[in-house]
What does this fold into?
Amino acid sequence: MLNKLPHGDMLPDLHLLDRRVPFNKIKEENALSGDLRGRNVLVTGGTSGIGAAIMLAFAERGANIHIAGRNRDAAEALLWKAKVRSKYPSGDQKFEFHSFDASVIAPCKQFAEEMLALFQAQGGLDFLVMTQGGLGSLNGERKVTKDGHEWFLALHDFSRYIIAVTLLPALKQGEHPGVVLDVLSAGVWNKFDLEDLELERKSPNFYNVAARDGPIHDILTIEFNERCPEVRYNHLYPGPTQTSMSSNSNFILKLGFALTSRVIGQTPEHFAEIAYNIGTKWEEGRTPDENCRAWGAYGEAVSPREYPKQPEVREKTLAFLEQQTGLVIQK
It folds into this structure.
């Protein structure tokens, strides 16, 4: 493993090939929980790629679908596809698009409050799927939001934290425990620079963005599950999935990502079945470990690495998110 090399605490644990769960087994398990009629699903970043595929997996099983993003045209075409895909075309299933800007704190908070009111009026939120973000700066240039924050810090960390914290009352409201599927990079990265979370001293390239944001979300997974055990907060790693995310990158990076995703990766539809499986595990009593909330690219249980599990690292990371967003995880 790379993390056994010198300075390996800064390198990823590539748990891609050694702990795979057979896909046929996942499909068989999914058949046990194939009726989600009346259940509410919100997918942020759900108009393309992994988010769109996960949304379709839930739509097929009859869930009420809410997708949030910036591209209304893409969303409307996708929602039509979701209606066609549903196994329960009775007309009762909801398909709605909500426009929001994940890059700026104030509009993101307003969106989250609107979604809270919506789902509380509908009996609660059953599944929150968060996929918004990207691979990092493809040319190495640092892009900032209107708030002055590093772009991917806002998309990956601030927006997801805001949405999850704000929607906790709706996730606790329903008959079943609410489930969060936070898709980023569970258990892959270890040490990151707590003194440079804005990446002012480093390039916001794929490596530095992933090395920062993966452990932050491992920390969020630990904190949410400790403070709100009635909500199932999961951190998922999709691995090198075959999406168009690298389409705007340089030729070398694009070629490398394409080859990697085809050799050891999977399609968004394949990963969507894995995400659906994880999201519905507890309803059939099929989870191997009630305390496990981190999952690898093939549905295998993984664990956060040592650095993000340290109490002082968790405390400083949460304090930073709380200070920037003005929100605290309420028990």
In short: The chain is about 40% helix and 10% strand.
